[in-house]
Predict the 3D structure of the following.
Amino acid sequence: MSEHSHEEHDHDHGHDHDHLHADGTRHSHTHGHARHSHSMATHHYDMPDLPTQVDIFDTILRDGSQQEGLSLTVDDKIRVAEQLDRLGVAYIEGGWPGANPTDTEFFKRFKDELTLSTSTLVAFGSTRRAGATAEGDAVLRHLIEADTEVVCIVAKSWDRHVDEALKTSLDEAVAMVEDSIKFLTSHDKRVFLDAEHFFDGYRENPEFAVRVLHAAEQAGAEALVLCDTNGGSLPGDITETVLAVRSAIPDTGLGIHCHNDAGVAVANSLAAVAAGVTQLQGCINGYGERTGNADLSAAIPDLSLKLNIRTIPMDRLELLTPVAHHIAELVNKTPSPQQPYVGSSVFAHKAGLHASAIAKSKDLYEHIDPSLVGNATRVVVSDKAGRATLQMKAAEVGIELSDEAIKSILDDLKRLEHEGYHYEVADGSLELLLRRATGWEPKYFHVESFRVITNHEGDEAGAVTTEATVKVQVGEKHLEATAAGNGPVNALDAALRSCIGDSFLALNHIRLTDYRVRVLNTGSGTGAVTRVLIDSDNGTRTWTTIGVSENIIEASWQALYDSIVYGLLHATSDTN
Ligand SMILES: [Zn+2]
């Protein structure tokens, strides 16, 4: 599997094929003919054996936070780094010391506030400026002061960027790489070089692109990271270029850094590994500017489970889903249900006719055992569900349903879905419905009443204020609280928490992450109703609850109530 024979490789590339050039033109060429005027070699490369290990380098704290709408405080960065360390990535890029106050403060505080057991922290910067010395360079001085064992510096490897952005000569660009790395290694730093725009640069001027790498190698860089900065390369380009670089530079470790602009960042990263790179840069959840960086939540299990390559410690792979969700929570992004391996829908089955087959042989319908990455099979239940589907769902949540209970649930589902409920997308409320059919009732608290007032006065900023009052009974105690919020749901949530927060400390971990409203014409003769869905998270699991009513506040309250009850129900089984 891991070794391709020469003949096979020749066969793959032995026919005429088209290449799209950087200027957008296409032309045909035949195998064996030099593709570039400066071509380093013909296409005769043996695929190497797959590496036994690939170092995972997460760049969410630097490149990943370039994503629109993503902004991290120093505290956020420390907490994200703790999660990455818990998962066991080899390197965490912490930011660019000196470039902005947050990153500068992060590097001041990490020594006291961040304890890493598995990962190594990396400070990021660039080479010295053109026409200056390394010793006098502020960026390099900040890198030394950041006091990390490893630094990663970016250098131009596309000749046109040297001409047009740096406005200096190619010789000076190479000298900038050399001087900077020598300076950093003389201060006992381990240095990684990010060769920016490497693949575009290699397409146009491979000689210069490789010259930059050679200079970095000779100056003492430990890893040369080939960056597809514009994200436009395809796996075939990556394979060919990495193989060529590897044969030109056989003795220094190579890395890959891909952006997802062509939708293939993970595929490109895997292609690079197959061609011999041993460091993979990307982000958990694929954060990053434009379409993002390579999604490590997919690349890690691809490498470890499918290709048998060591990435993070094997016994931590099951932390992948919880860590991916926890990081999403920390950066305030709703996790995508369709995200490979870690999304909530990726092992969800609308059982229907296949229910019994899925129950017997899950592997007929799932590409891996979801528990390997900390995810789980989920049965999706709608009003079209049958007995077998309901039984599977009950087994999934750990309850037993009698024939009688199943019949009453099927009747309830038909009626409720007709009213506008949609349990397929509200697994939290569905579980409560199933449990109630067994005679269970939540005993945490009893709601006596709630009231919401929104006041609009004048037209200044802050003219609209909302407050909610909630009265509940917990045990023998009658409790009442009033709280303000930025809207009715937020105010109700705050008032309820202020009533019962002292009784249920687990509430501190339960967070509402998304709120969606749809107005429906149900056709049931009652006119329009409002359907509210609330997503919640406790750092270990996420759940969705639903409310339906002609009144938007009442619909929101139902969804909120279910969310809190579900969260409390699972508070004891989730450790956090
Ligand atoms: Zn990047």
Residues 353 and 386 are 9 Å apart (CA to CA). The radius of gyration is 28 Å. The chain has a mean pLDDT of 89.
